[in-house]
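Write out a record, fold above all:
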Amino acid sequence: MSETGPAPRPPQLADLITAKRDVRALEKLGLYSLEDALRYFPRRYIYPGQPTPIRDLEPESTAVVLAWVVGVSSRHMRNRRGKLTTVTLSDGMGTITATFFNQPWLEAKLLPEQWVALTGKASLYRGQLQLSNPVLLNQAAGEAPDLDEISHPIPIYRASAQISTQRIQRLIRVLLDSAPPEALADPLPADVRLAHGLPDYRQALEYVHRPMGEREPEQALERFKFEEAFALQAELRTRRVRTELEPAVALPGEAGGQLRAFDESLPFELTASQRRAGTEISKDLASTSPMNRLLHGDVGSGKTLVALRAMLQAVDSGKQAALLAPTEVLAGQHFRSLSAMLGPLAEDGSLFANPSGVRLALLTGSTPAKERRKIALDLVAGEIDIVVGTHALLSDSTIFHDLGLVVVDEQHRFGVRQREQLRAKGSGAVPHTLVMTATPIPRTVAMTVFGDLDVSVLRELPGGPRAIASHVVSLADHPHWAARMWEVVGERVAAGQQAFVVASRIETQEALTDPETGEPVPEAVGVADLAERIAALPALRGARIEVLHGRLEQGEKDVIMSRFAHGEFDVLVATTVIEVGVDVPNARTMVIMDADRFGIAQLHQLRGRVGRAGDDAVCFFATNRPEAHESAERLATVAGTLDGFALADYDVEQRREGDVLGRSQWGARTSLRYLSVIRDEPIVLAARTAAHRLVDEDPELDRHRALRAYIDRLLVRDDSDWMETS
């Protein structure tokens, strides 16, 4: 039976706990409401078992000791800050000491002849057994241990100097016992729980905070993983149902239109993936339900061409298309790429231009005011067929004559709000939407992050696999390798090729010490300093070197990229502004300095800038970190494969779920705590099926208020506009 009525606001701890000191301590842990406290799960459990007599303890064994206090003393530690408290214990058959670090309050709480229960590892110290920093199992210091209590798994919570794990445990159990029924309303419907063998919400909380056996916390964890997956899939399904109910104009195209002319002009065959994706998109566009499709694939898989074919189908249907890019560099690159691909099919405004050609325009924040006004008038008059732009397309002053298709590139850099702003510019009907991302997406991530979208995947590369030899260069362990690396760059430049050199920063950051770990952080050379240094190398003497970074004016960036693409200089030293979309076929060499500072997807994207003509290329991942550094595995993984899908799987496995489920797609900050969208694929699949069935019967979750309330809490709304513009 499903829940009805409005979901109540959870009671606040300040109204439930009389001791204000406890309230303040819990608030410092981020716990404000009753639900916060009930969902504050232990970080681990202790499985103590039966007490072991002191005389039977063995070195390096973990055991429970039940004994009385003989004496307690504290002293300042000699070699580090803080106090060491030593407790002498006896059970009548033996004596042992227990040492506690920075818990001086125990001296006042643990009184002679008081019984205590502890668990920890017994180890030898100066020939004598001791318990080093054990866990006190008494519910509270000063109280006798409950033998029945310590025979069950004991929750250990993240505590603080103001409140102990034992006090947290006691407070949460009292709150759970006194919680009103409405505070324990279950987000999971009873039939869903029954079908998947899951405990209800109240029982799962008991399993977490008061387990009777080792299996119960595991059962609760399975339930809460499913709950998160179910809630996310229900939200995605709800969004999708809403979208499908919106009206859209069918864009069937024209048999003898621009799309056919474009296909006939191509000097190569489309890949099987491009043909399949094109068919899927064309079918969506011809529907009166708005297309909402994700297109993803590896670097160089031809996503832009697929998107252009979709835009031409919109143009052939008498509609306009807009391509929204996250940065001005990428918008300019797209505009030039579309113009080049269209060739004579594009109208360029010249005297001898094709009068029936496709009319393109570029609109960014750097577009001069006069040109911007002309583009705005042409858009509203229907004199522009395809407009490429950045956030300028979202402004209120940008009005379309008849917008039929929106293509959003690099979706992860846009918020849902930006996408919806552009969709809302359709004249009375919702424009069709095609979302592109240059990074391959694992299947479960696509289901969880982009679950409200249909998905098309480009798996083949035009012309076959690339040949890019990739090498990790650890300059910390092998400083002499630098000379050979630059010699290779010089040899290739001398042979008429061009090279990218990537810097991690615009300005140089001097070597420093990490304030948290105390580890040395190597110098990171800025882009201008790096250009000066390599220009002075004998291997690159005479090479023409220029610099590109995000602080340059847009016009200057465009000129530099154009000159590089036309071979007017040899080496471009740049920041990650060249990460996506830059196409220089003669660039067949790349050096990524401080490669340890980049993520896996970034490294793969950057490497994809070379060898685009299909010729042999080389990429060096240079790092000043030693080979024993934690980044070495990441760099070796990227160097070891050109398969973007394999790297995407590895990348997600290494990252926190909060990074996977970012604010960009959701329009909210997700707060997943238990579910791993990679490791828990079976749970995601099962939850998806169940959630779809429920939402299809109750699209707005009107009969499932507890689930709706839980979804709203899981997705902490954040409607602020944001966009990466550098």
